[in-house]
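Late entry, written up from scratch paper. The run itself happened at the end of the previous shift, but nothing got recorded in the book at the time, so transcribing now.
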Amino acid sequence: MKFDNVASVSLTTRKLTLAYDGNVIIQGLDLAIPQGQMTTLVGPNGCGKSTLLRGLARLLKPKGGTVYLEGDAIAHLPTKTLAKRLGILPQSPAAPEGLTVRELVAQGRYPHQNWLQQWSQQDEIKVEQAIATTRLLDFANRPLDTLSGGQRQRAWIAMALAQDTETLLLDEPTTYLDLAHQIEVLDLLYHLNQNAGRTVIMVLHDLNMACRYSHHLIALREGSVIAQGSPQTVVTEVLVKQVFDLDSRIIVDPVVGTPLCIPLSPSVAL
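Output as recorded:
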């Protein structure tokens, strides 16, 4: 099945239902994610953000409904064909001990290999480009486990870049990183979107970071989409209360002009 007028849409779901061990997390979801933009899934723990991302990446088989990539049902795409079009970076990925940055990044080229076409000059070029784009040339021959958290995360992103897909899905790419490394990783993803036209879809816990770096937000609660759209239209005091059960004040970020959520606590005198 194909949709008409999908030029501006990257991933679409129709009546998507996702479950773990019979426990339904997402039910009957219709969703359209814009192409060429940065989209972030936000919401409280356990609301279905990572589950939805796994469903979009075909890492979790739907109990019902369909996910479409630029109009093509991903369930019907051969695995290598999908891997050439859609890259996924799961939360807290692990690599074999002693693997170097270059060896990790080279794994991104596996979807382009077959018994007729082994490692090629094009593969070498894509790997080097990915390492250069993520500013890891000085670390290319270093074991991954000797790098800082931010450098390791950039190496994993470089692997996804070497896969050479138009769409990247990232599950909490800033988890366990300090503030400086969070900015480093998000700046890199923003650069890839702005300068390479990559569609970026990610899960973030930090609502303010999501507002600062995203064109499009999808707010989830208990497996349902509560609101979606630009940060300016989505992030309101009413929405924060509805989604996070938190009282807040929303002001304008004085640096970038995006919404800035100031949480309120009844136990702290204001």
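The chain has nine helices and twelve strands.
(Scratch paper discarded after transcription.)
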